[in-house]
């Protein structure tokens, strides 16, 4: 499938009428079945003897397939092969999609055979395309059978192409046979040829040229070569793939490591290797070096610089590994590799993970037909991590069309996108241009590894914003027809897709006080117990029970069935079963919550000491007279028999906010409430033989 891009037309091949070609720099030549001494077309049907290749779709590749014996290819051998949906096989993992490069070309995807490389597709309802592989000690055959070209119009494919690649292990030839080819591809974008791991060495048969039926091309490897290929390359930084990574600020230091390969056929000595970490302002923070005394041709060497990057400042950083000291090197463009390192401040309440910078190209990307998407892999800087939302920047939406944001686990084969964890549809009206935050349907816990966040188009003419300013994460993917593949231009683009991490969920509920039950209160009849329930956590709470018990009596339990209590909020809860005194006694009335998910049981319970009184009416209780009430400080108390007493002032949750000793005589008792804030309070006067209470209001 093609992107919304302006494509540069490729020139027609100079080999349009040639029946043979080469040699390339290494010595490979080719002949076709029209050339005397060339191959004889002889189709090998493996549809019943081979194994059907699963997983091919649109613009993707599958593999590796481990061959029974190695294939000699240029100056090295290969035992693993990948199969691309666009009509190529490769000896390394990578995706090639339209517009296709010319051969040879250093950089990008190298080490492949372009058999009939075009915008082919296995996707679409009723698509007849199939692929088979047959492997034995002498040869490996890969056949594309009835595979059409992709088309922007229904049913999304056109034409039919049946061709095969034969890797002959006995004579090291590569034969491509074309049984039946028909139809046309977008912009006539076709590529046929072979390219080495060096990229700068390869043999192109043709570009933009359709082949004929019952036709064969054979590539011949030279028995010997006069070419000394002096070349080494940086293979990876920190880990194979050199993928971008998130690092916690003030977290564990990052060990500086790399891998280099002797990609030539000449043994190398005294290779200088240097690692440099720079910040966003391009200031050098760390440098380290190592030397490889000897590296045999086609071998690799891991490098430990015995140095670390200590992440003290948040922001985007780069780790660049470079090699030098190689005289007469064939290719120098592969002598360095850059890895993106994003240091994040993990103390933030919401941590926004993204590899994209603040800018974008102003155009964005969308797929023809509106049936496609792009994704980014996110591995958080700590575990467990808790995701609450995805983010996306829409460059334009002239459809208008909606889109979906999906999150996949990395539990697929080899850590690929597997189980769908979350999916949120965004309507065309909501899909406005600009930065959008899309909450997940439920918080997501990432215990290990990472997740893939996918933006998938809901129709045509909607584009996601692209960051085209280095560094690049190499964590980008294209998804067409539900099939994932590494994004074809991942070395030059990051997408404006993000993942928001939130604080660890704290589930903590508790009973924080009584309403209408104060210390020393007399309860003389059936009384409804009312408590304050507080959510001390950071997520809404529900599905718990509340209990109360007067000292020595049975526990009363009731389920909380109200609306979920928001984080930091409280609700007033009334027990359906009343407390009825059965004897004159004093004791603790306690209430508490019960929740299996509660993470802190120390704040679940509250108690108050009360008097249960049987057979005494309210009229026999001491009557307190207070004035002025409301008051701004001093308060007069009267109505008590002479003697010592203690005055307590309690807030609405039963908490003690003021206490002082007093002596009752013939004159009213004066207390001062200057230290009590404005509000309504319960005032309790405790005597050795009785308690009395009343309500007071304190003004500002």
How many structurally independent domains? 5
Strand content: over 45%
Number of strands: 50
Low-confidence stretches: 4-16, 616-620
Bulk shape:
elongated
H/I helix tally: 0
Secondary-structure-based class equals mainly beta
Major sheet attributes: 8 strands, antiparallel
Compact overview of the structure:
The chain is an all-beta fold and 700 residues long.
Written account of the structure:
With 700 residues, the chain is mainly beta. It folds into five domains: 20-220, no CATH class; 232-344, Immunoglobulin-like; 350-502, Sandwich (Jelly Rolls), CATH 2.60.120.820; 509-618, Immunoglobulin-like (Sandwich); 622-698, Immunoglobulin-like (Sandwich), CATH 2.60.40. It is built from no helices and 50 strands. The strands form eleven sheets. An eight-stranded antiparallel β-sheet has the order 1-2-14-11-10-9-8-3, with no helix packed on it. The two termini are 73 Å apart. 41% of the residues are buried.
């Amino acid at each position: 499938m093609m992107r919304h891009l302006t494509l540069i037309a490729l020139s027609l091949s100079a080999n349009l009428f040639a029946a043979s070609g080469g040699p390339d720099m290494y010595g490979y030549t080719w002949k076709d079945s029209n050339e005397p001494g060339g191959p004889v077309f002889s189709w090998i049907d493996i549809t019943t003897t081979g194994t059907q290749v699963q997983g091919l779709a649109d613009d993707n590749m599958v593999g590796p397939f481990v061959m029974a014996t190695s294939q000699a290819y240029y100056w090295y051998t290969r035992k693993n092969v990948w199969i691309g949906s666009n009509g190529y096989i490769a000896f390394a993992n990578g995706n090639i999609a339209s517009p296709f490069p010319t051969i040879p070309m250093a950089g990008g995807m190298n080490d492949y055979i372009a058999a009939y490389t075009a915008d082919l597709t296995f996707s679409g309802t009723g698509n007849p395309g199939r692929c088979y592989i047959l492997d034995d000690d002498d040869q490996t055959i890969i056949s594309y059978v009835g595979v059409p070209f992709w088309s922007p119009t229904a049913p999304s494919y056109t034409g039919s192409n049946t061709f095969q690649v034969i890797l002959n292990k006995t004579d090291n030839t590569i034969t491509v046979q074309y049984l039946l080819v028909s139809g046309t591809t977008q912009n006539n974008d076709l590529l046929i040829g072979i390219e080495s791991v060096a990229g700068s060495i390869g043999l192109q048969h043709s570009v933009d040229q359709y082949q004929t039926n019952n036709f064969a091309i054979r590539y011949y490897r030279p028995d010997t070569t006069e070419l000394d290929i002096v070349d080494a390359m940086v293979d990876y930084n920190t880990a194979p793939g050199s993928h971008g990574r998130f690092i916690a600020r003030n977290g564990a230091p990052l060990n500086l490591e790399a891998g280099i390969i002797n990609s030539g056929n000449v043994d190398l000595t005294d290779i200088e290797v240097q690692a440099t970490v720079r910040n966003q302002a391009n200031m050098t923070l760390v440098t380290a070096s190592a030397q490889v005394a000897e590296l045999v041709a086609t071998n690799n060497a891991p490098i430990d610089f015995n140095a670390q990057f200590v992440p003290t400042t948040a922001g985007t950083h780069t780790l660049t590994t470079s090699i030098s000291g190689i005289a007469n090197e064939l290719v120098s463009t592969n002598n360095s590799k850059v890895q993106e390192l994003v240091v994040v401040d993990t103390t933030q309440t919401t941590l926004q993970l993204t590899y994209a910078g603040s800018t974008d190209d102003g155009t964005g990307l969308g797929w023809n037909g509106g049936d496609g998407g792009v994704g980014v892999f996110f591995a958080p800087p700590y575990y467990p991590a808790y995701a609450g939302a995805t983010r996306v920047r829409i460059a334009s939406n002239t459809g208008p069309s909606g889109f979906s944001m999906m999150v996949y686990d990395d539990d697929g084969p080899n850590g690929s996108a597997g189980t769908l964890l979350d999916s949120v549809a965004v309507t065309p009206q909501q899909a406005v241009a600009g930065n959008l935050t899309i909450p997940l349907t439920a918080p997501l816990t990432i215990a290990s590894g990472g997740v893939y966040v996918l933006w998938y188009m809901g129709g045509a003419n909607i584009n996601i914003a692209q960051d085209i300013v280095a560094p690049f994460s190499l964590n980008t993917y294209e998804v067409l027809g539900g099939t994932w593949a590494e994004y074809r231009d991942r070395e030059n683009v990051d997408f404006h897709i993000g993942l928001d991490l939130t604080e660890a969920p704290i589930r903590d509920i508790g009973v924080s006080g009584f309403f209408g039950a104060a210390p020393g209160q007399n309860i003389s009849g059936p009384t409804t117990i009312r408590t304050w329930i507080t959510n001390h956590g950071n997520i809404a709470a529900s599905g718990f029970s509340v209990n109360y018990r007067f000292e020595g009596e049975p526990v009363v339990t009731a389920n909380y069935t109200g609306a979920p209590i928001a984080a930091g909020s409280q609700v007033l809860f009334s027990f359906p079963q009343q407390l009825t005194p059965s004897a004159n006694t004093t004791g603790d009335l306690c209430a508490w919550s019960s929740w299996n998910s509660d993470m802190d049981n120390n704040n679940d319970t509250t108690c108050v000491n009360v008097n249960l009184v049987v057979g005494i009416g309210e009229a026999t209780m001491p009557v307190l007279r207070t004035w002025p009430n409301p008051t701004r400080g001093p308060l007069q108390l009267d109505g008590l028999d002479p003697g010592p007493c203690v005055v307590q002032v309690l807030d609405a949750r039963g908490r003690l906010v003021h206490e002082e000793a007093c002596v009752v005589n013939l004159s009213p008792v004066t207390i001062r409430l200057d230290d009590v804030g404005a509000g309504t309070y319960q005032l309790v006067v405790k005597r050795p033989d009785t308690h009395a209470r009343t309500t007071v209001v304190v003004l500002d």
